[in-house]
Structure to design on (180 residues):
């Protein structure tokens, strides 16, 4: 286990964006599998591996790079130490990044599900508000702890680890219509 941590730290130091993109891809794919196995209670033969691959790709190509870049921007322009700095970061994260990211995420998921423009509008109208409200029940406290206690290079890992359950929720909510 120690050698895995050493390898992770080495990769994180040498390739921070790529490493965090890969970890986000793995954890988003795993979140989808948790949704299918534990929440939807699908049998192994009924698992939607395409959906899992799509979630993993979203993590790899969008969520990981976007979060890493965003945290770098916050750290650069707001700072990294102190209670007021942390509160400013959480406010920016929850008032700017979260609503925008959720909108992008739901749009991408909707496109991957084959929705046209009208279908996307219906999907966003139905899912966006609920997900955003639930976001505000979970993420402000997570981000307070993350920004206060965790060094920048590990913040994406912390968020993606917590997001394992969050991604399971997103996967489930965004697939309800497809299951009917």
């Amino acid at each position: 286990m120690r050698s895995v941590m050493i390898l992770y730290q080495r990769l994180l130091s040498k390739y921070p964006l790529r490493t965090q993109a890969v970890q986000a891809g793995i954890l988003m794919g795993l979140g989808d599998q948790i949704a299918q196995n534990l929440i939807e209670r699908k049998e192994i033969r009924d698992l939607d591996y395409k959906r899992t691959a799509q979630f993993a790709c979203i993590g790899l190509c969008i969520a990981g790079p976007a979060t890493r870049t965003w945290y770098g921007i916050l750290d650069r322009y707001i700072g990294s130490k102190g209670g007021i700095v942390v509160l400013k970061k959480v406010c920016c994260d929850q008032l700017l990044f979260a609503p925008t990211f959720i909108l992008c995420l739901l749009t991408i998921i909707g496109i991957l599900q084959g929705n046209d423009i009208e279908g996307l509008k219906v999907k966003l109208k139905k899912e966006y508000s609920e997900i955003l409200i639930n976001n505000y029940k979970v993420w402000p406290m997570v981000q307070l702890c993350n920004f206060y206690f965790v060094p920048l290079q590990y913040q994406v890992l912390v968020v993606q680890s917590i997001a394992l359950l969050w991604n399971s929720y997103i996967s489930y909510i965004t697939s309800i219509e497809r299951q009917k």
Residues 117-149 form the longest helix (33 residues). The mean pLDDT is 95. The radius of gyration is 17 Å.
